[in-house]
Fold each of these.
Amino acid sequence: MDSDISEILRQWEYEPGSIAVRKFTGRDGREKIQLRVDLGILQMNAQGRPDGKKPLGHPSLLEFYLARLQQHREAHGGEDDGFGLTPEDCSKLQAEALQYHHRSICELQLADHAGVTRDTERNLKVFDFVTRYAESSDLAWSLQQFRPQLLMMHTRAVAMPLLQANDFGAAIRQIEDGMEMIRDFYRQHGRTDLLEESNELQSLQEWLMDVEQRRPLSARQRMERQLARALAREDYEKAAELRDKLKKLDVPETPGA
């Protein structure tokens, strides 16, 4: 086997500041994703655990620890008391979560919104699991500090298909809900001082403003804009006409009319 990948790298130049991603089918028949980085290429499976491994016979380490929790409950009358995650356990779960995070970044670039949703929800589950069972709050924070970024990516993945379906109302609600979850995170951890500095909140706020500007206007909204323009250019005859039309929109139709 020729281990030198210089030719592959030469054909796929690295561009600083950009995210270069591609998807293809590997020799094993499974879909792969590649991410070009400055010193080479990261390759991962598109489904399952990104590195394709089955740690301790489970699809992922998370599922191994969840199975271990279930065994503990069965041995202790359904109670969680006594079950905990050591620093080593948390470190392993964090390393695995990073694999899924890398993949979700690639999926976002590939517009694979279902994939982003799946992997971000999976990692949020890891964060909650570690927060619940880690032996110390410091261990939990090592993961929780990345929650705002995950929430932002998840929000984009959920809202984008709604925009593509022209459901602007539902998309706007999803963006607003995502922003509120990020704010709640900072409030719960007593870090409201970081709200104004949050890149994730700023990114979603800018996106929300863009979506609201592109949202199709209702008949009333169109006439209200036309009225504002007519008043601005002192076209009072047109303004009066538009006011009459707006008043008619407020008058309910007579049954049978």
Amino acid sequence: MAATPTAKRIDANSLNLKEQVVSINRVTKVVKGGKNLSFSALVVVGDPGARIVGFGTGKAKEVPAAIKKGIEAAKKNLRKINVLETTILHAVLGRFGSGLVLLKPAPAGTGVIAGGPVRAVIQAVGIPNVLTKSIGSHNPHNVVKATINALEQLRDKAQVAEMRGLALDKVM
């Protein structure tokens, strides 16, 4: 995915990134001499303290090499997410392909109610309390992309006030 021209690149070296492998897939390419085996890895990296997350895929003949390539791709694809101290600001629906992910704010003490790929992304961002529901496709690639799409839709009060042309205290 190409980065938007207005978004500035986030430097991965200055962050305390934690990586998590979401899925590893064995893929084959049928050629004249037989089958060529390789591995594809989907990796999510994030800094919970800085509220930054990214994902990447890597493909190689061995699993560790595929994971390493996925981490490098994810570091080039980092995004800053707007969240409150303990949860997200408002409910949001992210979509990618036929994968839909619903994220809802939750009170303190609820924890992360999410499964698989959604949990990996939420924990990478560092949101301690959130309710999620994955709807439609269960393909890990689509679910991760839909979750990040939902997180990118979150706006803080200052951004909403600026978009609406109101004073900060007038925004609910």
Amino acid sequence: METKALFDERRSVNFFDKDKNIEESQIKEIINLAVLAPSAFNLQPWRILVVKSEEKKKRLFDLANQQEKILEASATLIIIGNKEGYADANPVWDEMLQSVGGNQQMVDGAKQAASFLYGSTDERKLKFAESNAGLLAMSIMIAAKEFGVDTHPMSGIDFDGIHKEFELKDSESVVMTICMGYYDKSKQLYPRRPRRLFEDISTII
């Protein structure tokens, strides 16, 4: 699908067909395409929980203001940002060392810069995790549409409750959830509401 068509046709679907399942192999394809999203220093400070079992859906349902989408969608992704994704433990640094031909000085310089830019305050850590994971989230929704799969991003959720219920690490932040499945065509979506355009949101300085 052409890029313009992807943006024109992607909608946040409120109603999913419970009888249409997404195979795990297709979810894998979507995510493997979406991870081409950019991230700071290519650190990819993110993780995804794919909530697919009925048991886990019910647990998430109660933490998402009991929105029916959670139960109807074939899967819901919990997008998680890593607030310490700049640290030495990230295996991407080893990959970077190989990519730059073993230039340890270059990698050490990048580590120092990343540590200062993203790890010097709690606010910067959170911004780092959420801004990068947000890029992945949008990439997932566009990639899903390429495969004919519908999505709905959700931030009206109990972030702390999900963090606790799904036993995330202290260094991890729940960024959003994304319902994923196929639009139930027996229901009607609300018309797409107008967007504020360049003249409304942009200032050339």
